[in-house]
Amino acid sequence: MSVWEYAPAPESRDLANLQPAYRPFVDGEFVDGSGDPLTSVDPATEETLAEVGTAAESDVDAAVRAARRAFEQVWGPMPGAERAKYLFRIARLLQERARELAVLETLDNGKPIKESRDSDVPTAAAHFFYHAGWADKLDYAGYGPDPQPLGVAGQIIPWNFPLLMLAWKIAPALATGNTVVLKPAETTPLSALVFAEICQQAGLPAGVVNIVPGAGDIGSAIVRHPGIDKIAFTGSTAVGKEIQHAVAGTSKQLTLELGGKAANVVFDDAPLDQAVEGIVNGIFFNQGHVCCAGSRLLVQESVAEELLGKLRARVSTLRLGDPLDKNTDIGAINSAEQLAKIRELTASGEAEGAERWTSPCELPERGFFFAPTVLSGVEQAMRVAREEIFGPVLSVLTFRTPDEAVTKANNTPYGLSAGLWTEKGSRILWLADRMRAGVVWANTFNRFDPAAPFGGYQESGFGREGGRTGLEAYLHV
Amino acid sequence: MSDRVSVAKTYKLYLDGKFPRSESGRTYPVTDSAGGFLANASHASRKDVRDAVSAARKAFGGWSGATAYNRGQVLYRVAEVLEGRREQFAAEVAACEGVSTAESSAIVDAAVDRWVWYAGWTDKIASVLGAANPVAGPYFSFTVPEPTGVVGVLAPQSSSLLGLVSVLAPVVATGCTAVVVSSAERPLPAITLSEVLATADVPGGVVNVLTGRADELGPWLASHADVNAIDPTGASREARVDLAQRASNTVKRVLTVPADEPDWTRRPDISRLRRYLEAKTVWHPKGT
């Protein structure tokens, strides 16, 4: 069989309109933050992209005061129908600047351009468009007549989907009449600061949205600020627990979207080729930097060998490399720190007796890359079956009966998502009932939509984002 | 001729469908509002908490997996049995809370009606909170509310029956199972209510009632990894911060409750049901 080589098809880096420096956005203006500037790095090349001004506690305080003022004087009193129009404007501006944002996101995060272009940015715009429509229809959301906003929301988001997580946080908060102070992740602050510019272009009143880049200490300052009414956090379970602890006993409302260790369960009657595509998407989408990633493959024993063969063959075809190349399937790991964590956990899997198979793809000389890896013969007690790796590493376990599949799938303190693969409809519904997880994908994986609530059970957090259910997080109910 | 000597009841715990004493052997005297001796109540321990959580976890699969119609009928049956024992409860509430018999009768009536109200919710809440999601793609996506799991309930300290029913009924109506720490000073209606539950076809372990101190037992519930949610109503204000902090270690849902006991006679809304439910979204492709 002849092999057809791909010609490089890189997206132009210039489209990102990269600036040498970015600054915090407080009260409608870009300001010099009092924190130490950080440099944002392209994880695919390890080159510095830009210098980013960060907030100090005093800047967080100024942002909270601006948000409070905007809440009391402008945004809170504004009729929902008018708020809606600002959100529609933002949705349109995101669509208009989609190509720029996609390239910027790929540079800053390392994710393949086809993902930022086809998933992150359009879904972010969709979130604003969806929630815009709610702003003047909250009476119909099921929380009684005229439900009231909470006030100022402090929002802290992760680095895996920088713009999309921003949209998940800001769109519902604004639609329900809250104002926000948002901290983007330390390693991926750029798209949030371009979003701030979009707020200016939309004519959004000053103080409604404030963006304060910084590290964990600024997140902590937000969590502890007495002028904030609500904290929304997406990130690791460990940090989520710290936040819940810090908020305990205060009047702050809290929603948490935390880690996961999702089971992707494949039965012997599943269409295996289709399942392989779902498994690949489930764990290798966004380099596995996905809280709901299908990181535990549970396959029925009778088809385990066949499936593993097909899976390895398919994973061998994944193209790893320049995230800006439109052919790239696997981009860069977001940071050296994350790469070290993935390496350490994968090594622990080998040490504990799992069989390691790694795609024979070449790794670029520079940048943070990790080849797609499948660990088979994994036992439930191993760390790679229990801990979130947050990288392109799949742990494969087997089961014999549906009951065993359920028990193993639910054998985790997490509970964010689950995948099911079987042709039998009654079995899908039976399993869907029994998965202790907030999202269940049957014969598909990693589907997201602003109209569909997303969030976890147990230690994957509480509260939902999206749909009518998601509005609850920002209303007095 | 001598007056007949009445047979006094031994008040014990309600655990896994049975009525054991505290494994600790501890008891404490319970008095009426005038200070007169009523009974010795079991003084539940940490070990009793753990046994109760195990029982509640074991019962969760069956109770949450029962049909909503079935759960509704069981909870309605609780109201039926409670109605039949109105006078006993009125006397116990009057003794514990120091109210007149007329007042305590009204409290019992309200408690019966509360069970009826929540019984009717079991097969309706999913259609009120759930949804078919109009997603942008060829998928059927729907969202259903599912019970959170095992709930630790620190029952109100003042309202020994109506308050207890108001915090317990929504837990079991959703399909969750409960470990209840009763009012410390007024525990007797809680144990008598357990007898109602035991004879109303509520499966053993679905509700477990411990008599004792909320501030002693609450921290064990809040730090137990197999408890999914905590209602701190019966905890002292000072203790609530500690409970919420402990709860954070396993990301428990902690109910936001008013600083002081609310007026339990007020018509409830669905906010308590909402707190014990998790939204689950299921996707499936559409195709040929």
Automatic annotation (TrEMBL), chain A:
Q: Which family is annotated?
A: Belongs to the aldehyde dehydrogenase family.
* Domain (Aldehyde dehydrogenase): residue spans on this chain: 30-476
Which SUPFAM superfamilies is this protein grouped with?
Answer: ALDH-like
* Name of the featured protein: Aldehyde dehydrogenase family protein
> PROSITE patterns under this entry?
ALDEHYDE_DEHYDR_GLU (PS00687)
> What is the originating organism of this protein?
Prauserella halophila
Record bears the keyword Oxidoreductase: yes
The active site is formed by E257
Q: InterPro entries under this entry?
A: Ald_DH/histidinol_DH (IPR016161), Ald_DH_C (IPR016163), Ald_DH_CS_GLU (IPR029510), Ald_DH_N (IPR016162), Aldehyde_DH_dom (IPR015590)
TrEMBL record, chain B:
Classify the source by domain of life.
Bacteria
| Matching InterPro entries | Ald_DH/histidinol_DH, Ald_DH_N, Aldehyde_DH_dom
Domain Aldehyde dehydrogenase, first and last residues per copy: 24-255
Statement: the UniProt record of this protein carries the keyword Ribosomal protein: no
Q: Which SUPFAM superfamilies match?
A: ALDH-like
Key words of the record: Oxidoreductase
Pfam families recorded: Aldedh (PF00171)
| Name by which UniProt lists this protein | Aldehyde dehydrogenase family protein
Q: Which organism is it from?
A: Prauserella halophila
